[in-house]
Amino acid sequence: MDMDKVAPVVTIPNFMVAIVKIVGNNCNAHCDYCFYRSGNKGAQTMSLGLLKNIIGQYAAIFPRRAQFIWHGGEPLLAGLPFFEKIIEIQKDVFPKKAKIENCVQTNAILVNNRWASFFRKHRFSVSVSLDGDKISHDQFRKYRDGRGTFDDVLRGIHILRNHQIEPGVIQVITRSSAQRSKENFHFLADSLGLRSWSILHYCDTRKLNPLRKQSLSNKRWADFFKNYIDYWIKRGNEDLRIVDIDEFLCGIWNKVSSLCSLNGKCEEFFCIDWDGKAYPCDGYLSTNPKLAIGDLSSEGLDEILRGRAWREFLTSAKFAPEECLSCKWYRACHNGCVSYRKDGKYLFCDARKQIFIYLEKTIGFQEKGGDMR
Ligand code: SF4
Ligand code: SF4
C-alpha cells in the first residue's frame, strides 16, 4: 500500500513537546522492570553539537512557546555543566519573550544542593520516579548490587524541597505494589505529603525483561484504580490531585484530557534520542529502532515532522476499531496509547471501561457536564 496515498498530510501543530534523551540507555540504578535494562550501555551522553542543533531547530519552528522534557536513561548523568549549556543555548536561540518550560525526569539519586539550586534558579519542573513506600519501591528499584534506591531517592526529594521545589512523582504500579495500594497511597499522600502524583501501570508488552509476570491484567489494573479512587474520596480530595483520576474525570465531565493516552494527540510530542534518532515519543517506542521517524544527523527537524514515517505513525495512532467508534467513552479514551495496543486495539480497554463506569457511579457526571454522547 502506498502510504503517501492513505496517510494525511501533516501540518506541524503550533506547539509540540520535545522529549530529549540526553543520556541513552545509561542509568545509575538498575531497576528490575526497566525496559532499558537489557541495553544499559554505559556512557551515552548527547554531544553538545547535537544539543545545540535540536534546541536551535526547535526554536526555529516553535519560537514563542517551548516545552522540553530532559530524559534518559538517567539525565543527571549528563552533568550540571551540560544542563548549564541547555540554558545558555536557549537564551541564544529563542526570542526574549518566548515562554520556555524545562522539565526533567529523574530518579533523584544524584540530586544535591548544586543541582537543586540550579533547578530552582532556572525554574525547572522536576519529576521523580518513586513507586510508593520503602517496601514497594525497593522491591524492584535497585542498584546493580541489589540494594534498594528508596533512601537515596527520598534524600533527593528532601533536598529539592529544601530549595522550594515540590517535585512531581511518577508511581509505577506492578502486581506486587497493587496489592499494597492502601499502604502506598497513604505513604505518598500522608507520610510524604505529596499534593499531586501520576500513576503508570507496568506492562511489558514487548516482553523485554524477565519481570513480565509483574505486568497488570485488566482486572488487577481496574481494581487497583478503584481502590485509589476510594482512598482519594475518603481522604477528602480537595488538596490532593492524583493526575490520572483527574484526567479520567475529564471524560466523565465531557472535557478534553491533557494526557495523550486519553486524548489521542500523539502529534503533540516527539522524542530525540542521545544519538540524534527521532521517535514518536519516549518509552517503548524509542527502544525499537524500526519505529524511528528520522535522524537529525542527516535531516532537519522540520523535514522529520512533515515526513512519511511520522505520517505513518500518526495514521496508526489515530486508528480506532469499530468497537471504539461506537463506544460511549471513545472521546475520553481514543483507543489508548499506541504502545499498549495489540492488532490495533488497546490492551486495557476492559480496565478503562470499568474505571469510567466506577467514576461515573462514585463521582457522577452531572456535576460538571452532560452525557458523553
Ligand atoms: S504513543 Fe502513547 S505515550 Fe506516546 S504520544 Fe502517543 S499516546 Fe502518548
Ligand atoms: S474504552 Fe475500549 S472500546 Fe471504548 S474507546 Fe477505549 S479502548 Fe475503545
What are the SSEs and their pairings?
Blueprint: H1 3-6, E1 17-21, H2 48-61, E2 65-71, H3 80-93, E3 99-106, H4 113-121, E4 125-129, H5 134-140, H6 150-162, E5 168-173, H7 175-178, H8 181-191, E6 196-201, H9 218-235, E7 241-242, H10 243-252, H11 260-263, E8 269-272, E9 277-279, E10 294-295, H12 301-306, H13 308-318, H14 322-325, H15 330-333, E11 341-342, E12 345-346, H16 349-362
Parallel strand pairs: 1-2, 1-8, 2-3, 3-4, 4-5, 5-6, 6-7
Antiparallel strand pairs: 8-9, 9-10, 11-12
One iron/sulfur cluster binds next to helix 11.
Give a description of the structure.
The chain is an alpha/beta fold and 373 residues long. It has helices spanning 3-6, 48-61, 80-93, 113-121, 134-140, 150-162, 175-178, 181-191, 218-235, 243-252, 260-263, 301-306, 308-318, 322-325, 330-333, 349-362, and strands at residues 17-21, 65-71, 99-106, 125-129, 168-173, 196-201, 241-242, 269-272, 277-279, 294-295, 341-342, 345-346. The strands form 2 sheets. It has a 10-stranded mixed sheet. Strands 11-12 form a two-stranded antiparallel ribbon. The longest helix has 18 residues, at 218-235. It is globular. The chain starts with a helix and ends in an 11-residue tail after the last helix. Bound molecules: iron/sulfur cluster (SF4) (2 copies). One iron/sulfur cluster (SF4) binds next to helix 14, helix 15 and helix 16. Residues 260-261, 266, 269, 280-281, 285, 317, 337-339 line the site of one iron/sulfur cluster.
